[in-house]
Amino acid sequence: MPALPTLRQLGYLVALSEHLNFRIAAEAQLVTQSTLSAGIKELETLLGAQLVERDKRNVRLTTVGEDVVARARELLAAATDLAEAARAATRPLSGSLRLGVIPTIAPYLLPGVLPALRRAHGELKLYLREDLTRRLLERLRAGRLDVALIALPFDTGDLYVRELFEDEFSFVAREADPAVRSKNVALRTIDTGEMLLLEEGHCLRDHAIAACGPRRTRLESRVEATSLPTLIQMVEGGLGVTLLPGIALAAGILKGTRLVARPLLPPGPSRTLALVARRTSPRRRDADLLAGFFLEQHRRPGRPGASTLLRAGPSLRTPPSGRPPR
């Protein structure tokens, strides 16, 4: 068998590809700059190809280097899965678990769940990363996250998907808006020209646009917000109206404002909260256990503003098409 690259050498190259700086990459790998540089040089010699272009000011990957980095990420993720599988086999929901969560879920769902999770699983060390869905799934596939909590519909490809519950949208406007005089609002009566959205990249934006159906093209040119709190301020400032998810309303996002939320007449729009993991990951079992825990907390008696639970069995599997069940 020919000499093969080591995982350490591949890790050095991946770190350099992320930082494009030998010093910073070495610090990320907890080695000296000379050690990292020597490791990459050894890798180039072993593969018989130049992977990195260097000069006094810039560092960049060659075309071959970019291809090697892509393959190295897969190998490192598989090696991590192998090691984690051995550790997780006997002690589920223990050790370090890297959980990614999108910004329109994290501050509204996690504060009510994490304390109970810590009490129930004291050996679990949870590391959280908040980011947009696309970037979370990139990190998940690269092995830098174990599980991600996202909202569907979203293209999850071949990832394992465990659906949790439906999170219904409500119409939100100022108290003086005639539309909120009724107990329920028909989506067709909303002036989409007044609809305010989150900026490009937030899946909640896409869900709101899809909810408006044929009239959604009018939404493209509206003022955009960077977060739900900013969106609330814009609505309160008289710039328009919006749609907000049930978990945000249940968490009290409108507290202290003069805004009113009204349910939408059925069938109203909603999103589906879901946990996703790599199909080969040993933490897939933990994803199922986390899903059960989230559902248990969501079903607690007396929970205000609870969303509609999915009528689903204990496990949901992605169909052959790669798209999650709806």
Descriptive account of the structure:
The protein is of the alpha/beta class. The protein has helices at residues 7-19, 22-28, 33-47, 63-88, 106-120, 133-141, 203-211, 228-236, 246-250, 284-298; strands spanning 52-54, 59-61, 95-101, 124-130, 147-152, 160-174, 197-198, 224-225, 242-245, 259-263, 270-277. The strands form three sheets. Strands 3, 4, 5, 6, 9, 10 and 11 form a seven-stranded mixed β-sheet that branches. A two-stranded antiparallel ribbon has the order 1-2. The chain has a two-stranded parallel ribbon with strand order 7-8. Strand 1 (52-54) and strand 2 form a beta hairpin. Helix 1 (7-19) packs across helix 2, helix 1 (7-19) packs across helix 4 (63-88) and helix 2 crosses helix 3. The chain starts with 6 loop residues before the first helix and ends in a 28-residue tail after the last helix. Mean pLDDT is 83; it is low at 304-326.
Question: Helices, strands, pairings?
Answer:
Layout (H helix, E strand, L loop, with lengths): L6 H13 L2 H7 L4 H15 L4 E3 L4 E3 L1 H26 L6 E7 L4 H15 L3 E7 L2 H9 L5 E6 L7 E15 L22 E2 L4 H9 L12 E2 L2 H9 L5 E4 H5 L8 E5 L6 E8 L6 H15 L28
Parallel strand pairs: 3-4, 3-5, 7-8
Antiparallel strand pairs: 1-2, 5-11, 6-9, 6-10, 6-11
Helix pairs in contact: 1-2, 1-3, 1-4, 2-3
